[in-house]
Structure formats: C-alpha cells, structure tokens
Amino acid sequence: MSFPTFTAKTTATEVAETFAEQIKGKTVLVTGTSINGLGFATARAFAKYAGLVVITGRSSSKLKESEEALQAEFPQANVRPLVLDLASRASVRKAAAEVNAYAEPLHILINNAIAPIGPFVLNEDNLESQFSLDHVSPFLFTKLLAPKLLASTTPNFVPRVIFVSSAGHLRVPGLDWDVLAHPDPAKHDAAVAYCQAKVANVLAAKELTKRSNGKIQSFSLHPGTIATGENPVTVESLIAIGIYTADGKPNLEAPVGWKSRDEGAATTVAAAIDPRLEGKGGAYLVDSVIADDQVSAFASDSANATRLWDLTEELIGEKFTF
C-alpha cells in the first residue's frame, strides 16, 4: 500500500485520515489537552477513528471543556477524561493506576504536556519544575504504563510512546548534569531550562526503544512553531529569543516555520501511527517524516541517553524494567 508524502503544511486531520484503518480500535492517551493547545489538536485528529481517546489535564473544568468540544464535533467518539498533574508524582501514580485499571488495552502514549517557560520553581520532589514536568514525570508515567502498553502487542502492532520535543533542543550544547540533579536558582535561565528538557525528550525516546529491545517503539519530534496562547512569562521568554515581537505577538518574520495547531499536531499523529516508521524507533521527526540529521550531536549520542536514563531512575528512586 502506498501512502502520501507529508510536508510542513500537512495537517493532523489529513494524517489521521490517511491512517484511519491503522487507528481503528486503538486506545490513544494524550497528555496536556487544553483546548488551545497541540494536545487537543492531536486528540481531535484521533477522535474520529480511534477506539478510545484518553485526554488529560490538571483541571477537571478545563478537561471537561476539551471533552465537550470533542464530543460536539464527533458525537460517536469514545473520549475519556483523566486528571493528571505532572507537577505531582502522587497525581502521576494515581492517573497511571486508573489507566492500568481500564478494561481497554493501551496502544499509544503521547507525552505532549509541557511546563510553561518561566522562573525557577523547586517542586515538591526537589527538582526544577521545567525538567521535572517535561521529562521526569513523563518518564515515570511511561514506566508505570509500560506493562499495559506491552500487553497491547500483536503480530501486526508494536506499541508506541511519543515524546513531543522541539528544535529548541538545538539551542543548548547539552545537559548540565549537576544542575539537573541539584537545581540551583542562581544558574537558572528559563529558555535554557526549556531547551534542556527538550534534549531530554529526544534522548528518552532513543533509550526507551533500546531498553525495551524495540518492543516499544518510541519517537521524539519537533512539531513546528505554533502560537498556542502561552502564559505571560512564556511569552516574555519567546520575546527574548525573537520568536515573538516586543508587543507579545508571534513574529511572522522569524525564520521558524509558523504552523497552525492542526499542522503542528500532524507530526505527533504521524509518529504515533504511520506504519512506515515501524522498526525505526528512537528516530526524531520534523514535518511528519524522520529528520535525524536535525538532531544535535549531544542528543544523538547514545552514551548521553544511557546516562540520562540512569540519572532519571535515581531521581524517581525506581528502576524502569521490562
């Protein structure tokens, strides 16, 4: 069977339509699905065809808003809300236990939620909040759901885990290992913290595929640059690096390839379901196709992936076994 070649303008809706047969009957869990974000656009693309779409958010009211919007557009869709606050390990464990109790299998996990770019915050686990919410909590959530993911394996399907990263990972030389383990407000730079978390996402996808011996295919990706109504502190950081103008609007002259939310979610949907990616776990996607040539040297180094995995296990105090 031949499928179309995707481009920067391909939408998530189009990708899902292309692979409607592959999506049919699948359970897809997407973290961070507030109505103006990429996660919602991702869930929306899957909702029309999937067996079950699980949407998550910290706030029950915002989660309800997303659920109602999906049900209004796709009355036949099977959408299930799940309260998940990635800032709290207790919430991560509670949400994972809830998913593990579902009668349905879990085929695809999309780690999409991110922390707002902002000032230094030490969270309840004594970790810097950006790194913790963008990497450590998704790592723990994935670990807790791995047995359920593996149980969905069939001769024709290998479960997938997606980490939504960013080209921002190219803006830093690598990870400051000491600061990750021992956060220091004096060394905090909001944009750098975000970019380091995105490096971690790329490395996590590589190492998850490797450690599972390919039994879980994991991918990272750059969705493109999308205006999703960020909070004021995030906008401030984006102004500082020139992606937004001084008046807090998207800088359409910045060479960053602006996309709509539907276009931005396309790469996530492709990573999650495109059968042409089978056996290529660990790859990094841009514009819905593999773009490993756009990964930084640091994030391409398997030794760094191993070191990050080991450090993350130390931080959560648990081994991730298969």
Automatic annotation (TrEMBL):
Gene Ontology terms for molecular function: oxidoreductase activity
Protein name: Short-chain dehydrogenase/reductase family protein
Family designation: Belongs to the short-chain dehydrogenases/reductases (SDR) family.
Keyword Protein biosynthesis: no
Keywords: Oxidoreductase
Keyword Oxidoreductase assigned: yes
InterPro entries documented for this protein: NAD(P)-bd_dom_sf (IPR036291), SDR_fam (IPR002347)
Organism: Mycena chlorophos (Agaric fungus)
